[in-house]
């Protein structure tokens, strides 16, 4: 995984980053794991964008709670054609409209 990540493979980056975060089979390093997933997202991986969005929505793994950043990542993934991101973005937009109506 590490070699694949270093060679620029976005699936390798995601797998290695998650392995670093969980510490399964290697030393746990949450900061470097999140950085590796960010690197995959910056390389255009919509899957990595959605993983990071989840982290920002919950404030997990030291990224801090940041719903605006989460929505930005989801919107970017949706603009790249990710069907799950499109559904998530529609759900977020509907929730915002529902709150305004109340």
Present the secondary structure layout:
Blueprint: H1 2-6, H2 10-22, H3 30-42, H4 46-58, H5 67-79, H6 83-101
Helix pairs in contact: 2-3, 3-4, 4-5, 5-6
Name a few traits of the molecule.
single chain; mainly alpha; Serine Threonine Protein Phosphatase 5, Tetratricopeptide repeat; globular
CATH architecture: Alpha Horseshoe
Radius of gyration: 15 Å
CATH class: Mainly Alpha
CATH homolog superfamily: Tetratricopeptide repeat domain
Briefly summarize what is shown:
The chain has 102 residues and is mostly helical. It is built from six helices and no strands. It starts with a helix and ends with a helix.
What features would you describe in this structure?
The chain has 102 residues and is mainly alpha-helical. It has one domain: Tetratricopeptide repeat domain (Serine Threonine Protein Phosphatase 5, Tetratricopeptide repeat). It contains six helices and no strands. Helix 2 runs antiparallel to helix 3 and helix 3 crosses helix 4. The protein is globular, with a radius of gyration of 15 Å.
């Amino acid at each position: 995984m590490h070699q694949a990540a270093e060679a620029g493979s976005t699936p390798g980056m995601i797998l290695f980053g998650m392995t670093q975060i969980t510490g399964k089979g290697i030393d746990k390093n949450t900061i470097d794991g999140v950085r590796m997933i960010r690197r995959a997202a910056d390389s255009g991986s919509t899957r990595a964008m959605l993983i990071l969005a989840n982290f920002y929505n919950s404030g997990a793994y030291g990224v801090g709670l940041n719903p605006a950043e989460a929505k930005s990542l989801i919107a970017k993934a949706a603009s790249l054609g990710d069907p799950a991101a499109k559904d998530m973005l529609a759900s977020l937009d509907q929730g915002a409209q529902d709150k305004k109506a109340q």
